[in-house]
UniProtKB/TrEMBL annotation:
Keyword tags: Cell shape, Cell wall biogenesis/degradation, Lipoprotein, Peptidoglycan synthesis, Signal, Transferase
Gene3D superfamilies referenced in this protein's UniProt entry, alphabetically: L,D-transpeptidase catalytic domain-like (2.40.440.10)
Official protein name in the record: Lipoprotein-anchoring transpeptidase ErfK/SrfK
Cross-referenced PANTHER family: EXPORTED PROTEIN, L,D-TRANSPEPTIDASE
Source organism, top-level taxon: Bacteria
Catalytic residues of the enzyme: 193 (proton donor/acceptor), 208 (nucleophile)
Domain L,D-TPase catalytic: 121-232
Known pathway: Cell wall biogenesis; peptidoglycan biosynthesis
Signal peptide: 1-39
SUPFAM superfamilies: L,D-transpeptidase catalytic domain-like (SSF141523)
One Pfam family named in its UniProt record: YkuD
Amino acid sequence: MGITGKTHGVRMRRGTALSVAGLLAAPALVLGTGTAAQAASCTAGTGPYQKQVEKYLKRTADGRQSTADCNAIRSFQVAKGITPAVGYAGPVTWRTMKTITAQKAAGKNPNAAKKCPTNKGRIACVDLTRQLSWIQDGSKLKFGPVAVRTGRNGAETRTGSTKIYWRNIDHWSTLYDVRMPYAQFFDGGQAFHSVTKSMYNNPGSAGCVNMRPSDAKSYWSLLKKGDDVFVYGRKPGT
């Protein structure tokens, strides 16, 4: 169990303060999580990204908050794990919408720009900018792309070329006291692993590449120790 205690702690930033700048876009809002956030009153405030958010939600893009606008925005926030879910068209909500748009645009050709190497055989690619990951053999897509949740501001997922060096299907992080199912470590304490959170839940992970359970399970079956991993780009908001 010695490696368990150190694997998720190596080269990780300890005591990182969670940045809430941008989460609180209106001074009257109270930061909350989960049920408490969802139970908060719908805000009447017009957000800085009101018109853009209205357009994304296919509402009348007049740039003025209404009760119907707020309810639609709030429903989106609840679905994507954005807190506080009070219907305010702030920077986190708009950034999430832009990320989802970029993910949809990637379609089945996520490496169209050839930013992930195609000369290494099997490789897991992670695009921090679009919050996407996929597996390819050379230039042939094998799985994905899938949405991922990477490191928050101050605990960013490190970029560069690495390899999977250790795998544990039912890993327990002694650093964070949480389960990390289907963990595949590729850079210090950073790993692919399953979480039950939304992939858009802010502010992000402590550096790992979080995945939906079904996607993490597929990565487990498709990758092995020694396979290449390439991380590039920059997560929005970091």
